[in-house]
Design a protein that fits this description.
Layout: H1 6-29, H2 35-49, H3 57-84, H4 89-102, H5 106-126, H6 129-167
Helix pairs in contact: 1-2, 1-6, 2-3, 2-6, 3-6, 4-5, 5-6
Length: 168
């Protein structure tokens, strides 16, 4: 079986890294994909492809911290939006269930699943259609804001990597 030479192996590693980063950027918008972790994996692979000579441990620690921050954003964003509207615990559970169910209905399901779940949960809990609608809207606003923050974090990570690579 033929083996890859060092240049071909580096090129292959870079190609795989770019694919992971692109999939990760898409994943920040599509909850079915672990967006920011894929970006991080791609950046680590790119650093590895260069033997960590240009992008070292300190940069990777910063990138890992930004990845961890993205998890915090993902877990809290929709909940903060719902809390802003005074959501019940049932509405929060409904939003989580709506998010999971929405995954099975493509992009539209991903967008409206948390809203429908929060509305249903709040209506079941308190019986007020107006209150349920308000909670649904704020849950959705939180979800969208969280998604935008994760996208910004992913681009910051790529920027940090590029700066480290160019100056390393």
């Amino acid at each position: 079986m033929p083996t890859l030479g060092p240049e071909a192996a580096t090129t292959l590693a870079w190609a795989m890294a770019v694919l992971l980063i692109l999939a990760g950027l898409a994943g920040t918008l599509l909850p079915a994909l672990p967006g920011v972790p894929l970006v991080f994996a791609g950046l680590v692979l790119a650093a590895w492809a260069e033997g960590f000579a240009r992008v070292g441990g300190a940069t990777l620690i910063v990138l890992a911290g930004l990845t961890a921050l993205s998890f915090l954003v993902e877990v809290t964003a929709a909940g903060l939006g719902a809390k802003r509207a005074g959501a019940s615990r049932t509405a929060l559970v409904g939003a989580a269930v709506g998010t999971v169910v929405g995954l099975f209905f493509g992009f539209v399901g991903i967008l409206i699943g948390p809203f429908i779940g929060a509305v249903a949960g709040e209506f079941l809990s308190r019986g007020s259609a107006a209150g349920a609608g308000r909670v649904g809207v704020w849950t959705w606003v939180g979800f969208v804001c969280g998604t935008l923050v994760k996208l910004v974090l992913a681009f910051i990570m790529v920027g940090v990597f590029i700066i480290a690579y160019m100056t390393g």
